[in-house]
Amino acid sequence: MVYGRSGDRFLDDPGYEDFFAAAAELGQPVFIHPQIPSSTLRDASYRGFDEMTELGLATFGWGWHLDTATAALRLGPTASPASPTCNGR
């Protein structure tokens, strides 16, 4: 289980190629776990609501779903050449 990004590095970053190669070699799935959006994204998308509404939207209400979906899209067949699925893994 991994997050869809580490700081500004997404899962389609070439630095993750060995990780995905090992998972493929072992025949193991990789589960993408959502995380709280970055401060920049929270400022742009969720600020201005009361504290609990902001937190709910940024996490279980919307943000976690968007975070995980974006990570999956970056790994999909139309993603960058570094994407594991583009390399047959």
Automatic annotation (TrEMBL):
It comes from the Bacteria. InterPro entries: Metal_Hydrolase. This is Amidohydrolase-related domain-containing protein. It comes from Amycolatopsis bullii.
